[in-house]
What we know:
Layout: H1 3-11, E1 17-28, E2 38-54, E3 59-64, E4 70-74, H2 88-99, E5 107-113, H3 123-138, H4 145-158, H5 167-174, E6 179-184, E7 190-194, E8 200-206, H6 218-232, H7 247-252, H8 259-284, H9 287-303, H10 310-320, E9 325-331, E10 338-344, H11 348-363, E11 368-371, E12 379-383
Amino acid sequence: MELLECFKEKFGAEAEEIYSAAGRVNLIGEHVDYCGGKVLPAALSLKCRVAVRKNGTNFLRVAATDIPARADIDLNATENYKSLKWGNYQAGVADEMKKAGYNLVGCDILYDCTVPFGSGLSSSAAIEVATAYALAKLGGNKIDKSELAVLSKQAENNYCGVNCGIMDQFVSANGKKGHAILLDCVSLEFKCIPLDLDDCVLVLSNCNKPHNLVESKYNERREEVDTALKLLRKSLPELSCLADVQPYQLEERKALLTPLLYRRARHVVSECDRVLKSVEALNAGDLELFGRLLNESHKSLKEDYEVTGRELDALADAAQAFPACLGSRMTGAGFGGCTVSVVKKKCVDDFIGTVGKTYREKIGYDASFYVAETADGIIDEGKAE
């Protein structure tokens, strides 16, 4: 059902405005955002669109086009909805915005999300940022996209229990079509890097294994790198974050860490280096080098950080073995989700067929494939018509 028609059916009135926020693919720089590192994501045309209207009450009423779930959230008691199976992201964003002093008004919001859930392409961030933008606009607040991203991230941390970094929400808000974003996750300074892939495209391969960040080992990895940082500070007290460690410094202090913590830290340190080399490669038009860096990233995520699993490894292995694929790696938090591959345009159909067949034979069920298109982050589509 079309978005506006569905809105009228759900809420019994016409929508007033339509906004959207983007999903994202992280090209390289995985599991370094919460370590203070730089990352290189891009916003996707897969997005969360919201149709909205003020409802004259003190309730935030939220619903979705594709599921029957609905939540009515009292804006005077936003802290009371953490147990919602659906609607807790929206309640969390409202709670953080209220604490930050935003004016919130009762409204109806209908969500239509084309970012596949559980894909590692940040459907949660798209939902959060779209919610934050809608609430800010309807409440007549001054709009700062980066601040809305920070509040959305805090909602996921404090309200939903996922100890994520800032990357997902930031690019969902600030993405630029035709570009990747080089983001410093500490200062939030960023540069738009032209993403000219010449005769190649990005192909996203979804392993279709369900994953849940709260229940996965994501928070465990956070604890491990935090511990590694504390131990390294015994020798390097000036360290502000693990991403500041140089490769030679880590090797010199290897004895301070357990073998497991050393591998975790080695991934972060080497991945930060790969991000900078990737920007240089893209600026120079060296896609062969960029592809090799993607392969190295996956190897590090598999062996040092241990966040891939047999499904993502099967996709990456099959992609890397395909002659017209320059490089492939898992993207997102891991434990399920997607890989991102740089593939020659003329060979995309063959790539999908070959990798899909190999994956099905090895894993027993099908993967899904998307040719990725970059997009702007937040889009204000204006009046609903």
